[in-house]
Amino acid sequence: MVEIVLAARRTRRGEIAWGLAKGGIEPDESAEEAAVREVREETGLEAGIEEPLGRTRYLYVWEQVRIRKTVHFFLMRAVGGSIEDHDDEMEEIRWFPLPDALKRATYRGEREVLRRAAAKLR
């Protein structure tokens, strides 16, 4: 059975949003290096990249400033670490069977990424 780790964080409205670990790319860091780092920081897991899952672009407003964001997604396999070691930015980290993760993920774009991952794992 394939399981997916999702991270729960609070939205600005105070609601819980379940999603994939993600974050900014630091200077002199590749998208792959950033993905591995962000997964480790946000979930406590050490993970290795299996293959790319594409990218998504979106626009959001933060403190009345429009921000364009591009997120690169990768199919990754946990190779160590513990979800107990997640950072304080996340309220909870939990493993879900793939069908449950598809239902639990808050954002449509991330559900699409999970569908792409499922197709590659068949």
How would you sum up this structure, described in words?
The chain is α+β, with helices and mostly antiparallel strands and 122 residues long. The protein has one domain (3-121): Nucleoside Triphosphate Pyrophosphohydrolase (Alpha-Beta Complex). Helices cover 28% and strands 43% of the residues. The protein has helices at residues 31-43, 98-104, 108-121; strands spanning 3-10, 16-19, 45-62, 65-81, 92-97. The strands form two sheets. A three-stranded antiparallel beta sheet has the order 2-1-5. It has a two-stranded antiparallel sheet with strand order 3-4. Helix 2 (98-104) runs antiparallel to helix 3 (108-121). It starts with a strand and ends with a helix. The model has no long low-confidence stretch (mean pLDDT 94).
Topology:
Elements: E1 3-10, E2 16-19, H1 31-43, E3 45-62, E4 65-81, E5 92-97, H2 98-104, H3 108-121
Antiparallel strand pairs: 1-2, 1-5, 3-4
Helix pairs in contact: 2-3
